[in-house]
Amino acid sequence: MTLPEGHVNSRCCTFFLILLASGSALAADVLPTAVNPLGLWLITLGIAFLIAEAALPNYGVIGLGGIIMFVIGALILGNAELPVPMIIGLGLLSALLLIALIVRALKTRPRHAVSGDAGLVGSVTAVTTVQAQNARNGWVQLQGEHWQVHSTTPLHAGQSVRVLGRKGLLLKVAATDAVRHGE
Q1: With bands split at pLDDT 50, 70 and 90, how would you rate the model's confidence at 106?
Q2: How would DSSP label each residue in 115-173?
Q3: Which domains does the chain have, with CATH numbers?
Q4: What is the value of pTM for the model shown?
């Protein structure tokens, strides 16, 4: 069972709000007063933003904010005598995770067109049928469709042709050997 997109986002937002509330409650009630609750709240919010980066369709904006909040929160907690190498290491680890997420998101971006005129022009296929009255007209099977073709030179069945253009439902083609020689 697949859930609609809005339902998944509302579940994620609810999870992040509960996470933020629990982080604030932890900072206010459980920890000793020597630890600054603002630092813990910023770290919690930073982690929530990093998790949101993985769940929401964006390119690093929320994750960058999460890293900044995480590092600032850790620096505020520096008075609690946390080791500085640990703070720097966690910040670098978060940055590496964010970079991995951005690279993965960029790989899913649309690539060249594979349908329409852009997908047809340049395609090579074989002539399936030639019209008896005019050997310059025929039919080809291309991208799961049966297309009528026209060439400046006579065609024969089984000949490889390259699509040069389209006008309505008619493809303009040339023999693949003629295309290579500059026709």
Answers
A1: confident
A2: SHHHHHTT-EEEEEEE-SS-TTEEEEEETTEEEEEEESS---TT-EEEEEEEETTEEEE
A3: 5-107 (no CATH), 116-180 (2.40.50.140)
A4: 0.39
